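pinned: reference chain
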Amino acid sequence: MLVAHELNETTSRHRAEPVAIWKARKYIEEHADEELSLTQVAKVVNMNANYLSEKFKQVTGTNFVEYVARTRFANASRSRPGFNRSRNSIAFSKDFRANRLRNIAPLR
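pinned: its structure tokens
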């Protein structure tokens, strides 16, 4: 039998993603080639920027800035199928700082 805290942990892992977070992720993915800010995305999903930041990290497991960087990196990696490019090559072509990308794992 599950105790209360185990039940809460189990059900929270199986809940659907909140609509605001889904909209934020979708907006980031659609506008990754543009300049993005937490404040801008918060306005799009009609949330306070601090609250969005907290919920975004809680739901996705990554913070806003890292999620944007990973999304941009994934888009750059897919931009030319069959073309094997190094991380540094992608980083410099997309105006990323290569040293910040070394520790970023690919999106799931």
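why pinned: The first helix runs from residue 4 to 13. The chain has one domain: 19-101.
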